Fold:
Amino acid sequence: MKIEIWSDVMCPFCYIGKNNFDQALEKLPFKDEIEVEWKSFQLDPSLDASKPQNTVEYFKEKKGFPAEQASQMIGQVAQMGKSAGIDFNFEKALIINTFTAHKLLHLAKKHGKANEMEEALFIAHFTDGKNVGDIEELVSLAENAGIDKDEARQALTSHVFDSEINQDIQEAKNNGISSVPFFVLNGKYAVSGAQPAEVFADALQQTYKETVSPFKDLSKEGGASCDTDGCAI
Structure:
């Protein structure tokens, strides 16, 4: 069963959503039958890749929120994070254009390490205060994940993954996805936002039952049929 997840590195609810999704997945008996594919999404593609901002500055300048209101909102999200087992350090988080970070995600996907890299990017941004738009910081994350640093640097400084990133973003637009996180379950159902683990578990179980589980046989004895060996009455 395939799960597609649209996300952006600097989206705190994407981190919370991933955490809750992982908790739900871990308890399911069919977890080994689930394939997760991370998709790129940019909350603010207009951001300058060379000029990081702190979170309060960003909400004040870009969104027009007073500093006090921005701080209050950030505090509420931080509390949500604690409830999900996440330590948000918004005072250290650097707001930056995330397109280059998405290049690293797609490189990790090529190596079968996208889920690991998504987690590493969230930690780097929200917990460690790393600049996830900086090439050397991203190369270091690649090395920690077992990806060759020269291959990573080449991918991050070239346009090799640009079309894949843009395709993800366009696919989101085509499907009416305007906010993240957004989970598409086996092409049949969708779950939006940082839902509790219980919601993810219920949605995954329902999707599995309807799209993967063997058919429930409602037939009665005596029904005539044919197979490859012939027909039986």
Observations:
- The longest helix spans residues 67-83.
